[in-house]
Amino acid sequence: MPQKTLSRRTTEGGEVGNSLIVGHMHKTYCRSVFICFLKIAANHAAQLKSSFCILGNEIDLANLYHQLFMKRIFVLSLLLFSLLAIGCDKNSEPAIKNLKIAVIGDSIAKGSHLARLSTELDPLLPSEYEVTNYAVSGTCVVRECFAPIWNTAEFENMQKDEPGTIIVMLGTNDAHSGNAAVRYQFETDYRAMLDVFRAIPSNPRLLLCYPPPLYALAPVNDSIVVHDFIPIIDKIANDYNLEVADTHYKVTDYPENYPDSLHANKAGLETLAKIVAEALDL
Description:
Blueprint: E1 3-5, H1 12-53, H2 59-88, E2 100-105, H3 107-110, H4 117-121, E3 130-133, H5 153-161, E4 165-169, H6 186-198, E5 205-209, H7 222-240, E6 243-245, H8 266-280
Parallel strand pairs: 2-3, 2-4, 4-5, 5-6
Antiparallel strand pairs: 1-3
Helix pairs in contact: 1-2, 6-7
């Protein structure tokens, strides 16, 4: 089950209520403007007709001008009414901001009962946001690897939940020696994964994170991350015009935060969360 960070969160019902109030005020304002316009136009037309009638021998001309003037007012009124109707349509009400943030990744993002990337990220963001952790330990990007993220319930549930932002931190397990034979598919499957995320109806913002540094030589190798995966992520981000969080080079000087040479402890996750929060800039 994905872990949700719900502390200090407001309900989305409050957002909906505010949106409806604003929409109602907008509709009332549109109607008021339209009514005032008609009153002003009618009064001006009546005054114009009276001034011509006083001239006596020009009454016919005045009536003709009055009719033409009223036709023009009628056409302008229809035009204004159409514009106001479009502006007052329910579809023009302020959109409800999607405050759901999803973290998809492997065991580094998942963390443990002591600390998770999502729980460390939560206090660094505005209080109205809700962060949910969909990370699954041991998972990879490549679909033919030993544990593809594609086959997990979390991968499906995240899409169903339609978040407004997706933080992607994957690639560490793709650098595992057990995936050497299928590693060449990393770019193709990474792009395919992002295409799935981009097809989510909520049209989420995507933030790509570099795989954090690996301090062990086996079974995962940091040189593969540095020389192969990070350039691929940069290339994809450039092609898709996406943002990237440097969760690799900015933490390489803190090996003490990775006691098993792979997984970040609480201090390490705090540092990663700060980098992600700065990249989100909410």
